[in-house]
Amino acid sequence: MSQRQVLQVFEQYQRARTQFVQAVAELASRSQNIEPRSNSGVMALLRPLLLDVVPTIQQTAALALGRLANYNDELAEAVVKGDILPQLVCSLSEQNRFYKKAAAFVLRAVGKHSPQLAQAIVQCGALETLVICLEDFDPGVKEAAAWALGYIARHNSELSQAVVDAGAVPLLVLCIQEPEIALKRIAASTLSDISKHSPELAQTVVDAGAIAHLAQMILNPDAKLKRQVLSALSQIAKHSVDLAELVVEAEIFPVVLTCLKDSDEYVKKNGATLTREIAKHTPELSQLIVNAGGVAAVIDCIGSCRGTVRLPGIMMLGYVAAHSENLSMAVIVSKGIPPLCTCLIEENEDHIKAAAAWALGQVGRHTPEHARAVAVANVLPTLLSMYMDAHSSEDLQVKAKKALKNILQKCTYLPALEPLLHDAPPNILKHIVGQFSKVLPHDSKARRLFVTTGGLKKVQEIKAEPGSLLQEYINTINNCYPEEIVRYYSPGYSEILLERVENYHPVL
User: Fold this and answer.
1) How far apart, in Å, are the Cα atoms of 459 and each of 389, 462, 471, 489?
2) What sign results for the dihedral spanned by CA atoms 107, 110, 113, 114?
3) How far apart (Å, rounded) are the C-alpha atoms in residues 202 and 214?
4) Are 152 and 121 in contact (CB under 8 A)?
5) Lowest CB count within 10 Å: 182, 210, 424, 451, which one?
């Protein structure tokens, strides 16, 4: 065979390899073309092409593997079992930037599916190589490496700790200072994934100086970056008072409140989440948010959106109100009760309704004044119906019941309580009757109204266990009225009167 013929054969072989990897990469980009069982055999054909002498073939082979592994955990497992990862890791530090991005994509695609697959990446020594890629001159390589590290770290604290131990955090903090928006986003997201698992991991991120740089980006015009920045700060602040205070000290208020008016719903949600994670810790941190106008801003945010975007704002109001009478009054004065009632009625998801019920319970549990503010919004019948509705989730029933008890035990506004006398089950009824027994002995107008509206008659119809707390409350109410009035409204008394009429013999 002549040299010319050898070259022709070689060119044909190269074209065939190129066409093969390009075809697989193209087909793998469309999910309908991916059959896990058949494509797991393709892995074995792609593996040797990762070491091909032609760089474009190497890169395209890695891209195809990444797309296949990205599809589901079965194909990702085939990459691991095919002993492809060590080969990728070995080449990652030596090849050009295009290959590095493709290889990092494969690692990300494998690691995203489960902690076990992410652990396989750690065991093949990929973390150290990915961390080296964070120092690459090419922003795309840094971005691909940060993304892969984030997908590994997000699973659990052990994997997150492995990423930290590999030295990723200081370099990720440098990445959020780079000019490229895409790199900033991914680095902030990865810092968020590292921080979320434990106070110790969050402290590692803080010690690397991340808070100050993240705080500076809250007003960045890029919505996707703002989402990740707010998420990272939330994941840091949620763990402890000390970490929340460090976030606050970065002067994020009132700046972060502008995010609650953002056109991007995820920016709104993450801004409210950050405010919630800070407010939940102490009365002092909640007061700081109130002073910055945070309660009013969150109330406006709840009113301007629907669904799960509302959830962190609802919970934030509940946390603020739970801390003290004054903070709860701040929620009331800022007109926070009507939007919470709206969420309770409008929302379709039970977990959002449960959060609204819980928040209303926290607002109304402090004093009669607080309870009245909630009761006049006519929310008590709604809470009762949700508690008694068999279709309500267990969590919603529990939250509605607890909120009812919290409010009822303080409520002395009888017009809001009386409608509940007719529908409440015994375990709720005792709290309602208990409040009447506290108010009626000291309020003559209320005693008269209680008779004319049918309340006294309803109380006589209640069947309470002798010696029970409910019976004691009923006795206290009955002692507020003349005996003949109580007897008149007692069940069966009309029949007794008729019988007396029948048996009465007039004196002629």
Assistant:
1) 24, 5, 10, 9
2) negative
3) 14
4) yes
5) 451
Rounded to an integer, what is the distance from CA 297 to the centroid of its chain?
19
Residues in the chain: 508
Q: What is d(CA 276, CA 506) in angstroms, rounded to the nearest whole number?
A: 77
All residues at 6 or more sequence positions from 83 whose CB lies less than 8 Å from its CB, including other chains = 47
Task: List, for residues 340-367, the tens digit of each pLDDT value.
Answer: 999 998 888 999 999 999 999 999 999 9
Distance CA(492)–CA(499), nearest Å, equals: 11
DSSP labels for 393-431? -HHHHHHHHHHHHHHHTT---HHHHGGGGGT--HHHHHH
Residue 30 and residue 45: Cα distance in Å, rounded?
Answer: 20
pLDDT of residue 161: 94
104 alpha carbon, distance to own chain's centre: 30
Question: How many Cβ atoms are within 10 Å of 9's Cβ, its own excluded?
Answer: 11
Output the CA–CA distances (angstroms, integers) from residue 220 to 185, 259, 492, in the order listed: 11, 10, 74
Q: Which of 245, 129, 150, 240 is nearest to 193 (CA)?
A: 150
pLDDT over threshold 70, residue 36? no
Q: Is 446 exposed, middle or buried (0-12, 13-18, 19+ CB in 10 A)?
A: middle
- Judge whether 83 and 120 are in contact, CB under 8 Å: no
205's tokens: 């991120």
Give residue-wise pLDDT tens across range 56-80.
666 677 677 777 777 777 777 777 7
Nearest Cα residue to 491 out of 462, 455, 450, 449: 462
Distances (CA, A) of 191 to 38, 101, 153, 225: 37, 20, 9, 13
148, 130 in Cβ contact below 8 A?
yes
Residue whose token pair is 């990720």: 172
- Separation of alpha carbons 409 and 402, rounded Å: 11
At which residue do the structure tokens 């050009």 appear?
Answer: 96
CA–CA gap between residue 405 and residue 420 (Å, rounded): 13
